[in-house]
Please model this.
Amino acid sequence: MTRIAGWLRPGGHLVYSVEHPVCTAQHPMTGWPNEHDRTAWPITAYGYESSRSQRWFNTTVTKYHYKLSTHISALTAAGLTLVALDEPQPTHAAVTRQPDLTQHLIRPPLLVVAARKPTT
Model:
């Protein structure tokens, strides 16, 4: 984050998204449990920041789990100011069209962060 902050001009903005830390908090990352009609997302290791492997399509993907506080602390330690934080979810209309999106109402899929480099 410090390197990115160094690339920004004074007053410059940084916007990024990551898989939400709640999604990557499962260790090992085995996906939705097959019980209770998938109404709960297991958080088994939120405080344990590390790489995590998960099967995605036909390959294994390495992900990195960091707590929300780690994301924000990295921004401020790099001298950036948090401007906005969002956890977007599908609309009711989107869920009606695609019922499989309901899972994103149970746990947010993304974390979107906006920060700004001070002008002075």
The chain is about 25% helix and 30% strand. The first helix runs from residue 2 to 7. The domain at 2-116 is CATH 3.40.50.150 (Rossmann fold).
